[in-house]
Amino acid sequence: MASQAARGGVSLPERRPAKRQQPDSDTILAKLTNSEIVSKGKRAACDTAYVTKRLLRSTGKAAWIAGTTFLILVVPLIIEMDRDQQLTELELQQQSLLGAPPIGAPQK
To answer: Could you tell me if residue 75 is inside a domain?
Structure first.
């Protein structure tokens, strides 16, 4: 290298190894993010999010089952009961127009 410097070359200084930060010189933010309390809080938040997601998914499935069951079984029953009530009212109206005594009235 000395021969290169004599001929006009440039010699670079030797590189020193980079200083590593000692655990004592960590910043407050790094200490907080690496603390046990923060890691437990993150774990609790992840567990809560997982349970909430599963609960919402199962609640959605249960709501779908209840809704379709209601539409298939209960709505036709309600329609049929309403139809029967309308038919009964129509019969009572026709009997009153024809002059027949109402059903359940005592005969003389």
So the answer is: yes
Across 1-108, where does the E strand assignment appear? none
C-alpha 105: how far from chain center? 60
Do 95 and 103 touch, CB atoms closer than 8 A? yes
Each residue of 76-91: b (16+ CB within 10 Å) or e? eeeeeeeeeeeeeeee
Which pair of tokens denotes residue 10?
Answer: 């440039």
Give residue-wise pLDDT tens across range 33-67: 788 888 899 999 999 999 999 999 999 999 999 99
Residue numbers of the domain that contains 53: 28-98
Do the domain assignments include residue 8?
no
- pTM of the model as a whole: 0.42
